[in-house]
Predict the 3D structure of the following.
Amino acid sequence: MSRPAGREPRRPTRWWRRRSLRTRLTVIAATAIAVSVFVGFQVASELMDWELRDTAENQLRADSRALATNAQRAGLTQVQLPPYPGSGRLVRVILPDGATRTPSGQPALPPVSEHAERVAQGASADLMESNDSDEGYLVYTLRAGDGAVQVAQVADDSPINQFGFGMLLIGLLCVAGGALVGRTVARTGLAPIDRLTAAAVRVAHTRELDADIPDEGGGEIRRLIRSINDMLAALRDSRRAQRLLAEDAAHELKTPLTSLRLNVELLIRLDRRGTLDSALPAESRTRLLNDVGAQVAELSTLAAELTDLARGDVSDENTELLDLADVVVAAATRARSRVPDIEVALDVTSVWVSGRPAALQRAVLNLIDNAGKWSPADQPVQVRLRAEGTSAVLEVDDAGPGIDAADVPRVFDRFYRAAGARALPGSGLGLSIVQRVVDAHGGRVTVARSERSGALLRVDLPAADPPDPFPRPTPGEDTAAR
């Protein structure tokens, strides 16, 4: 039965995830050492057991050959078997009839096995076997005369046990030492992380973004510290941009709001006194109301531009393949509807780009509006669109006085207005929005002087392949009209 989706992980997994990185490194180091000691103990035990058994077997073979030589000289029934000294090897002679002889005082050996009897009968020359009884004998049987001789030794596991106990103590010490070393290494290696965490907590509590975190450590730690410092720098720039935007917005809103408030207060005061008609002739009243309407329109435009600018990007709108000529024509139409006196001369060709139509139309509209403020009444704003290599080139020029060389570096700054433009309506945000939109589309906007001595603003955008005019039929498809 499968585990339901969203079920919490098992308890050991939850415990492991809740541990600190130091604890994890300590546990991993201790576990690695414990596994290494265990594997080393197993390998060493096997090698030691093999070596001891090989030595014991060689000794049994040597003793058996000496006893067999004596038995062949004196006979199996007459060979001398010295009394058992109380320790050491055990011997036994197997007679042809199956009877056995053992030294006096020697402990009883296990019964002669079937395989050993076959050696005594001449079926094989010798046999090395181990007994599985409680004593654990290692017995070597060697053919001698008409029978056989046996030399046995009690299997002694005490060296292995002593070695295992020693390895256990060493393993415990190694595990404890490994845990201590792992803890120390973790503390030393994570010290820059601790200082980094403390600095991040300090920034979060104090909201101070000016202090960079000291660049220390190496490798991944240094890259992490540099990434966080870059993030803090980006946050500082963002906060600074927000503060400048708020300050500039307050400054730009102050003038139209003050003028609007004075005009409205004047109308309210005269209306309360009942002297509105007498104090303000029709012509003056119309002019005042027109001023109020213009100030409200200016505030609305400024609010819309601030909203666009405060968003910081144009990524909310989907990118699509579009004909930039349609965007330019639509922007010119909107410009004529907003300012009926403006005259726009279009010279556009179809150029396809990949972009966001609303943002591009706003940028073109701002370019036309900016040119319309400077172009004389009898001189149209010229808008040209063409393909140039792999770029779509849009040019908007006017017949005005042009842009001074001192103003060119700042013409796209927020709220910047040249000295000659301060008396004209506007917020100083139009060209800044143009640059933001063009940059978001991977293009470039530049300022130059036009052939009519006015300002020439040029936008270069990456061109795209136009869509296929007709769908391509698939192979074998019948395309005939039916």
